[in-house]
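Worked problem 6 (solution included).
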Amino acid sequence: MDWSRERRTGPALIFVGGAMTVFASVAIIWWLSDTPLGVDSAVYRAGGFAVIHGESLYSPLLALPGWAPELPFTYPPFAALLFTSLTALPSQLSWGVLALAAAPSLYCALRPFTDRVHLPLLLIGAFALHPVWQTIGLGQVNLVLMAAVIADIFLLRGSRWSGITIGIVAAVKLIPLIFIVHLLVLRRTADAARALAAFLGASAFAAVVLPSDSVRYWTSAIFNDHFAEMTGWVGNQSWQGFVARTVPEGRLATVVIVVFGVLCAAVAMGLVHRLHRAGDDRAALLVTAGCSLLISPISWTHHWVWVVPALGVLAARGRRGVAVAVAVLFTGWTVAVVPGGGGAEHHWTLVEAIVGNAYLIVVLAGGLARLLRCITPYTSGQRASFFDVRTVLSSFSCIEQRKRKDPRDPGNDTDMVGDVGAERRRDRTQPDDDAEAASGTR
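Solution. The predicted structure is:
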């Protein structure tokens, strides 16, 4: 055993245990003092009660505590079945269950994306990020779902269980369906098939147990009329939210949304393919996650927890200045300093529009930068001569990246979750992951 590595992992695990202790203490104290805690976890719990008592899941929830706003249940019926487990606890302790999972989820999400030198600091700093502390405060499931996807992509790769977790996560919240496409682009077709089967199986099970709620969800509630009214609010950092804030409602806005969504998905999946061929599956996963945040109709600020593994990659690859800048941007001040709510977003100045759409701008800029680094332009077998583009980009091209080995890159840490370094070496010699998966199951 490499004790030096073990010691470097120690502080991170100690912090995880300490964070869990703090959250458990807060939940108990808030419960004993009957203090409101966890708006979204209260909605989850109320949805579970609706299932148990045979009430309509997508009508006003009767089990919401008096202090909670009258929010609707917006998740698929399968999620409500899972949330029935929260009905055994008071609202504050239901929040505590989800809060207890926050630190372990962050640890699992960061391990494949950074090295152990940066892991403790990144883990501590993650709690200062707006998406993270907002997820914890609301009692949301974002961190758990992100960790589940990452574990499936890296930890379960090559096993007969790979893909199932992604399918279940997609049955809880539909946006993760994009990760099934991600698996297909990576040529992990068996994993994608298992993911799709798990999603359909979970949804079918929910339809058998909750037939009327399932019909209502898939025919009307899925369109989420309640949140559609809030699409233009600054708290929605999706492309559709951006369009709602900047383009008058009507046919033009619809065309802009649809065209961008199709173009974004096509370019993102093409970039995922290039990155996978270059052996950089971590960056590929972040591209897919960023695409999901952009094309989703609603991407609340607490959905942007994928910034955490992105910071891990930046730090591990020596881009510490960029990592710090991005982290500062995601502390929440950008949505706090601009006018928001009541249609105020329609009257933003140019500066306010830039600041108020900062999350969106960051992921677009990062995706464009990564795309440019993967472009190797040729014309008829010769170098492109227009402004000698290849000369400018050659140092950043994916071909050059494959020739270099950066010791700071966690891909070289063979003790990482899922052995991402070994994954990179396998990709150079065997691009078809299905063959690898098949050999691993024999």
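Discussion: The longest helix spans residues 3-32.
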